[in-house]
Amino acid sequence: MGDESVPYFLGEGTTKTYQIPISHLDYKFIEKCTDIKHLEKILRVLRSGEEGCYPELTLVCEKRIERLDPRNRALRKDKPAATASDFTAEEWFDVEKECSKIDEDCEESNSKARFFSRPSLPIIEKKIDTTGMTKREKIFIATREKEKGNEAFATGDYAEAVTYYTRSISVIPTAAVYNNKAQAEIKLQDWDNALQDCEKVLDMEPGNIKALMRRATVHNHLQNYQTAIEDLNKVLSVEPENSMAKKSLQEIEEKLKGLKPVSEPQAKGKKILIEEIEDTEGREQNTEECERRGGDKREQSPDDLSILYSNRAACYLKEGNCSDCIQDCNRALELQPFSLKPLLRRAMANESMERYRQAYIDYKTVLQIDSSIQAANDSVNRITKTLLDQDGPSWREKLPPIPVVPVAVQLHRWDGGSLTSEDKPSTIDITMEKFKRLKNEGNDFVKMGKYEEAANKYSECMKLNTEECTVYTNRALCYLKLYKYEEAKRDCDHVLQLEDSNIKAFYRRALAYKGLQVRKKNMPGILKHGKKITIEEVEEGQFAPSEDAQTHHVAAEEAVPKAVPRRSSQKLRVSEPPNAYDFGQIINALNANKDKAACADLLTATDPKTLPVLLSNKLEGEILLIFIQSLEHYIAGKDPGLAYQHLFYLSKAERFKVVLALLSKNEKEEVQHLFDLLTESHSDQYSLEDLESLKEVYEL
């Protein structure tokens, strides 16, 4: 007997596998054990036979595991492959015969379901009851059904697309919907219905290009070759360069070569396969309008026609007619690919219609062309958050591919045209680097409060690139800080000519208008104090008081920033600011000039209870300090009760605790000195206990 067998007979020791105590291989232990993992190990040891063969104990262990976890993987048993002896006589059959039956059944089911899609879904009614609907409601429903049909067509579900187009026609029959329905029926090879729909379009709009093209396609498949040729000739008479019509005509003529000789072969064009399913509204009068306005055919002036479509799209966007806006943008982009304004307007329209994926693609395309368009950057960030909430972390996988913008289009924004030499890109790169460097220097000057130097840097940037809107809005900000409102207004006007929806330009132009109105109001007050005032008309809107009859232009410029805030502060003695915005503007002007007396007048005219509302969340350390200094030097001695009220309600403002914690030691000493003055004074509006509790709020 070896040493290894001694523990087994003594009931001690562990198994070789899993190190399970030998005492656990017992009926009582297995019936009481609830640890499934441990039971699995015991079962493997029993099945392996390394400790001996115990069939009954193995069966008990399997049943115990089954009671605790019926679907446990340990209960699975290996099943050997079947052999010939495993089958009975009844189970043997002719394999080839059965396989042929299965193939026949599959072919029969496929033939029945060839033109049917999604049979499990409920049947959609093809007619909508419009009883009692207003005209606006009918237009809305018809447009919605048409868009559903477009979406179904885009996904390849042509039968469903036909259903939705039919529903739209039942509400308001339009040529565009009939056209789209005909295209879907062509995809389904439903030639008769497609021909009828094309005929209806041509009854409504004789000469409709798409209807003629699609009717020619139907006649071609119905082998009515001569009729198809007539339709294609009508298309080419209107659009001689239509590549798709040329290609179709050439194919039909090749089919007719054996039947009827063609007298005059058509000129070959560049072969382009165009798949059309865009909407064509009744307003589409492209060829006639172009001939009437320009005297040339559409193909001879695509840029002008693209601008017309883009302008009409802008009108539709203003009206809220997003569908027509998208159609005109599509047409403009067909004539002039990667044009900025149609891309931006189509993106805005798609975003308004909650087509966030299409809008995201257009905005990203715009940024490939010109990355400086702030509206596109903001919209991309906004739509990214929406798509993340809507589709989750994998939202990028659901996006359609973003088109790649040609390099020539990207460079066009900088050089004003196409490249004509190989060394052009290097020159542009140098210009871009210099532009970015000057712009960054201007931004740094703004951060340091050196607005005059920043404006000069931005002006140098404009010499390199006059199309960069950000530079103009930045320089407008500098002019506002320098009280040059007329110059700020001009910069904002220039930006809005390039980007009619630039938010910063609108806001800063509003501030410029406000500044110009303040100067006009202050003009009578200035005239009262001076004997002789000369107004220099070098820059519109600038003026300065002077004692001499001859005033130098530089003196006028220097006097304006100092005079305007001082005059505006005097008006605060009459009435308090009407809103938080005006209050903030006045406080910023007073703080810039450190005018404590004017600040005291402002606080005297302002009801202390309104301070938290007027300050909003704009309380800063400098504002708190000028309030304390004004109360200390001008108000505490005359009216300590008013000073106490201002201190009390000032502590109720937002960010008060944060600003108080950031005060320096010297600034806290000024606050302490103000409280000492109030302690020495007496007022009916507060007691010493009130003052002590307020000091605790100010952490003194």
Automatic annotation (TrEMBL):
Its main location: cytoplasm. Residues 577-668 form the RNA-polymerase II-associated protein 3-like C-terminal domain. Gene3D superfamilies: Tetratricopeptide repeat domain (1.25.40.10). Residues 279-303 are annotated as: Disordered. GO terms for biological process: protein targeting to mitochondrion. One of its GO terms (molecular function) is heat shock protein binding. GO terms for cellular component: cilium; cytosol; mitochondrion; nucleoplasm; protein folding chaperone complex. It comes from the Eukaryota. It is found in: Cytoplasm. InterPro entries: CiliaryAsmbly_MitoImport, RPAP3-like_C, TPR-like_helical_dom_sf, TPR_rpt. Keywords: Cytoplasm, Repeat, TPR repeat. TPR repeats lie at residues 175-208, 209-242, 435-468. PROSITE patterns: TPR (PS50005). Residues 280-301 have a biased composition (Basic and acidic residues). SMART domains: TPR. Pfam families: RPAP3_C (PF13877), TPR_16 (PF13432), TPR_8 (PF13181). This is Sperm associated antigen 1. It comes from Serinus canaria. The gene is SPAG1.
